[in-house]
Design goal:
single chain; 301 residues; alpha/beta; 15 helices
Length: 301
């Protein structure tokens, strides 16, 4: 089992320099300073929205669609719609007069245009280490909005859960990340956007050399049969994005797939696709994903 003390190190460092943390956010381009605590914030990144919500920080507008069922209660009719994750409604954003705008991987291309309205920060992951990203963003956002105690509790629970999960995944067999997109299937490896399943959750990869494409390496049922993973981590992109097409269960209902060790032993984790694919870097989202893995691995001890 490998265990990293990212929670302790990151939180202690940020608390020790609280004056710095109170007005700074870590981005892929370095640390960005904020002049003061924002009173009106909007975000075009669902991971950041997930974390802000978990901290108890309200946002002034919502993207549409939200995609994440766990956040559906936010859309109570009181908040204006600010556009999609990819295309802001600039008129509405301007009307809200935010003090802070957050963008993420799907909206980063709009950062320059949004910066003309208010200070805009890019909270796309700044590292391939998802645990470090989530702990840092949760801690910094907590400090920025006066939610230090909430942040400490959230990252403490996440750290403890990850330690427990790594103990379960160690020597529990090798896994393969499988995405279904309607009738199509693809896989992801350690160097992909979902490499954190291996690096952070401790699932040993059955395949090392997988093309790190945005939507994975397209494969056949024969390929999946021959790879024969002990565990399959399956996410349904069609379900995550609200598209039409067969579900992951239907797509993988195949004679060749049924012969894999994962299917034979029931070691298949159908992850919550919205948490896994849309709100990946949210602290509540990652916690729920970790809990799902703990439940699955505990049941197969």
């Amino acid at each position: 089992m490998f265990e990293r003390s990212i929670f302790g190190a990151a939180f202690a460092a940020l608390v020790a320099t609280s004056g710095f943390a109170d007005t700074s956010l870590t981005t892929p381009d370095g640390v960005v300073s904020l002049a003061e605590t924002p009173e009106t914030v909007i975000t075009f990144d669902v991971g950041a929205l997930d974390t802000l919500t978990a901290l108890g920080v309200d946002v002034a507008g919502l993207t549409e669609p939200l995609y994440v069922p766990a956040l559906a209660a936010l859309d109570d009719g009181t908040k204006p719609k600010i556009g999609s994750l990819f295309e802001p409604d600039f008129e509405q954003v301007f009307a809200i007069q935010p003090d802070l705008i957050i963008v993420g991987p799907r909206s980063a291309s709009q950062m320059e245009a949004l910066s003309d309205i208010a200070q805009t920060v890019n909270l796309s992951p700044f590292s391939d280490d998802l645990e470090q990203v989530v702990v840092t963003q949760t801690t910094e956002l907590g400090a920025l909005f006066g939610k230090e105690a909430e942040a400490e509790a959230l990252v403490g629970e996440l750290h403890s859960s990850l330690v427990e999960l790594r103990g379960l995944t160690e020597n529990a067999g090798k896994g393969l990340i499988v995405m279904t997109n309607g009738p199509k299937i693809s896989v992801f490896g350690p160097e992909s956007r979902f490499g954190w399943v291996h690096a952070t959750l401790g699932v040993a990869p059955v395949l090392e050399n997988v093309e790190a494409e945005t939507h994975g390496e397209a494969i056949s049922f024969e390929f999946l049969h021959d790879a024969n993973p002990d565990w399959m981590i399956v996410f349904d992109r069609t379900s995550a994005t609200g598209g039409d097409g067969p579900s992951a269960n239907e797509t993988l209902d195949n004679e060749l797939v049924a012969q894999t060790t994962a299917m034979q032993t029931g070691q298949v984790i159908y992850v919550n696709p919205a948490d896994f694919y849309i709100a990946t870097s949210g602290v509540r989202s990652l916690q729920d994903t970790v809990n799902q893995f703990i439940e699955a691995y505990s049941a197969n001890q």
